[in-house]
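Pasting as-is:
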Amino acid sequence: MKKTFVLFFALLVSGILSAQDNASGDKFRFGFKVAPSLAWLKPDVKGFSSNGSKIGFIYGIMMDYNFAKNYAFSTGLEVSYRGGKIKYDYSFSSGNTVHTYSGDDTYNLKYIELPLTIKMKTNEIGYITYYGQFGFQPGFKISAKQDFTQTKTTPAGPEVAADSDAEADASSINISLLFGVGLEYRISGNTSILVGLQFANGFTDVLTGTNHQDTSTELKAISNYFSLNVGVFF
C-alpha cells in the first residue's frame, strides 16, 4: 500500500511539472506546501472524552484551476499526521463482578488526503491577494498507532502502559469539512508565497473498533485540526 502511494505521488508530481509547461495563461497554478498543525479527537462514547491535542504536520502539493475571475477550484495531494488524546472512565459487569477502568490513549494517525475546495480571491492589492476557501477533504489511512495507559480501579489492578498498532481501530477513510483563509504575496511573475490558516472538521468517525475490555462498547471519534499553511505557487 505504501509503495503504491509513493508511486502515485511521484507520478502526480511528474504530471504537474509537465502540465506547467503546457498550461495556457494563468488557468493552472501549482505549488508545494508545509503546515504545522494542532490536532485533536472528539469522541462520541459514554465515559470517553477528549484529553487534549497533539502536534501534527502536513506536507504536499497544491493545484489551483482558475475557472472564473476571482474563483478557483483548489486541490492537491497531502500527507497528514493527525490524531489526539482521549481519556476514559467506564464500567461493565461480568457475572456478579463490576469491572471499572480508567486511562488515557494517544492516537497517531497518518492519512493521505485530497482536498476538494472552492477558493474565492480578491483582486490583487499591491502585491497581495486575499482568499477564503471551503470544501471537502477525503483521506485514506496510511498508518495508525496508539500509546495508552490504563488502570483497573475496581477490583484494583496494576497500571498498564504500552504502545500498539491501531490499524484495526482506525477507519480506512476519513472525510472532513475544510475551511481556510489566507493571502498570497506575489514575488515575481506567477510566483507567489502563500500563508494561511485552515480548519478541518471531521464528520466521519476515525475510530471504528471496540473497547478491548468490553467489546460491546464501540469506539467513535472524529478528527479535527487547525493548521498554519505556508507554501509557494509557481
